[in-house]
Amino acid sequence: MRRIGILNRVRSYHRKARNILEDWARKSSLKMVRLAVKLQHAVAREDLTGLIEALRKLPKNHRTRLIIMGYPRLGKWIDWQAMKHGAPLAIVDPRGISSECPQCDSKLDENGYRRLRCPRCGFEADRDVIGKLNIR
């Protein structure tokens, strides 16, 4: 009897965590799309459909953190909000986005943790910033 109570409690916490993630994705996507509509911009996001398969190659602790973030859920809500509010939506192929220089299109070299540097023009930035610039 005690095991059933513990199992029910764990399920309750799991539902609560899932609801928190769903609420976060819904609210975040709405804010992004409303801002894009206000500024008359398009909404662009990476197509991360193969993310889960690619995660199997990563170390377990890193893989778990990325799965918990709920990228597919956020992508679904961004698409839905963009369609609902009439914002143009661009879905970009993620291959090579953070490894090409946004200024001269050459291949970037690693320059520390998450930092990349262009050997040709000297541009240097965090890989997330580079990805954002290339998506833009």
3D architecture notes:
The chain is mainly α and 136 residues long. It has two domains: 94 residues, no CATH class; 41 residues, no CATH class. The protein has five helices and five strands. The strands form two sheets. The chain has a three-stranded antiparallel β-sheet. Strands 1-2 form a two-stranded parallel ribbon. Strand 4 and strand 5 form a beta hairpin. Helix 1 crosses helix 4. The radius of gyration is 19 Å and the shape is flat. The mean pLDDT is 86.
Terminal Cα span: 57 Å
**How many domains comprise the coordinates?**
2
Indicate the low-confidence ranges by residue numbers.
none
Number of helices: 5
Structural class: mainly alpha
Task: Describe the main β-sheet briefly.
Answer: 3 strands, antiparallel
Instruction: Determine the strand fraction and express it as a percent band.
Output: 5-15%
Numbering strands along the chain, what is their spatial order in the largest sheet? 3-4-5
Give the beta-strand count: 5
State the order of secondary-structure elements, H for helix, E for strand: HEHHHEEEEH
Helix content: 55-70%
Question: How confident overall, as mean pLDDT?
Answer: 86
